[in-house]
Specification:
The chain is an alpha/beta fold. It is built from 15 helices and 16 strands. It has two domains: 265 residues, TIM Barrel (Alpha-Beta Barrel); 81 residues, no CATH class.
Length: 373
């Protein structure tokens, strides 16, 4: 039996939005879902118990960072990532490909893999499809991502074509390296840049391998929203309906709405935790910059009716602004918990709207109020 399976519950009749359930060896979770990012085997400032309370059924961790520190052998020794970080829910591990891509001049990509300098100590390292799979097997994640190259924007057709072809060859090597893996499911990643012909060709090649799930990579890398939506809507139609669909690196409400509207099930992004550490709160009507003077004497909570720990406990905007300006860790924790709760609730309401058959109205209502700020 496959380690990862997808169950379709309801599909919206007028859009591609769909509600489902993904089953993994560490539990099942409803979709569409946003995965909090735990890059270093922890979601920054948040405990596993708090993640459960927020309703997170799956988190993302990162092969590149754990490969460098503390190293796969230590995690293997601990009994895998779940035991190491004391998290009993599902885990998806990124392959490390995006982080290597982000290193710019510090890395060199060849057919064999990527040679790069560690951002920690400058030492020379090497990641390949085989090494990435070996690390992810040691981590013991439920969902393993294929090692790929994220194509930058803009990129000409020739570069995008050669990169996508190499990514496909790397995927075949990933599949071979995972033949002895138990309790893990490998997801392929469809690349192709902003070119429809490359997306179509690569989607056909990836889905021919009949993997347990598929991701769309190389979007939300700096291209205009309209172009992102065009390529997304085209590509998602090329993926099988009975498998999970994952849009990588997306975490703002407008992009999440766009993704769900086109039939995406899974999302991840550091956005909610990163902006929290910079003093920003996410709300249903827009973003609140807590350093702004307008909040100095505001003794209301971040958002009325919010069920997050910060809001239900009565911590006010004035107090949180004080903590942020004083660089107190508690203030950043409150914002992190609030932002993660907001996105979990956002996804829950989208799912409920899909099941109720009211998703188009939900979409329009949210976009109308969100853009008022």
């Amino acid at each position: 039996m496959a380690a990862i399976t997808y169950e379709l519950i309801r599909k919206d009749e007028t859009t591609g939005a769909r509600a489902g359930v993904i089953h993994t060896p560490h539990g099942s979770f409803p979709t569409p879902i946003f995965m909090p990012v735990g890059t270093q085997a922890t979601v920054k400032g948040v405990s596993p118990d708090e993640l459960h309370d927020l309703g997170a059924g799956i988190i993302l961790s990162n092969t590149y960072h754990l490969f460098l520190r503390p190293g796969m052998e230590l995690v293997r020794e601990a009994g895998g990532l779940h035991k190491f970080m004391h998290w009993d829910g599902a885990i998806l591990t990124d392959s490390g490909g995006f982080q290597v891509f982000s290193l710019g001049d510090l890395r060199k990509i060849t057919e064999e893999g990527a040679t790069f300098r560690s951002h920690i100590d400058g030492s020379k390292k090497f990641l390949s499809p085989e090494v990435s799979m070996e690390v992810q097997k040691a981590l013991g994640s439920d969902i393993v991502m294929a090692f790929d190259e994220c194509i930058p924007y803009p990129a000409d057709h020739s570069y995008a074509k050669s990169s996508t072809e190499r990514t496909q060859r790397w995927l075949v090597r990933c599949c071979a390296a995972m033949t002895d893996a138990e309790g893990q499911g490998l997801f392929g990643i469809v690349q192709g840049g902003m070119y429809r012909d490359l997306r179509a060709r690569h989607a056909a090649e990836v889905t021919e391998l009949d993997l347990p799930g598929y991701a769309i990579g190389g979007l939300s890398v700096g291209e205009p929203h309209e172009l992102m939506e065009e390529i997304l809507s085209y590509t998602v139609e090329l993926l099988p309906e009975h498998k999970p669909r994952y849009l990588m690196g997306v975490g703002t409400p407008d992009y999440l709405l766009t993704g769900v509207r086109h039939g995406i099930d899974m999302f991840d992004c550091v956005f909610p935790t990163r902006v929290a550490r910079n003093g920003m709160a996410m709300t249903w009507t827009g973003r609140l910059v807590m350093k702004n003077a307008v909040h100095t004497h505001d003794h209301t909570v971040l958002e009325e009716g919010c069920g997050c720990y910060a809001c239900r406990s009565g911590y006010t905007r004035a107090y949180i602004r004080h903590l942020v300006r004083a660089e107190e860790i508690f203030g950043l924790r409150l914002l992190t918990l609030h932002n993660l709760y907001f996105l979990q609730e956002f996804m829950r309401r989208m799912r409920a709207a899909i099941i109720a058959g009211t998703f188009p109205a939900f979409y329009q209502d949210f976009m109308n109020q969100y853009h008022k700020r």
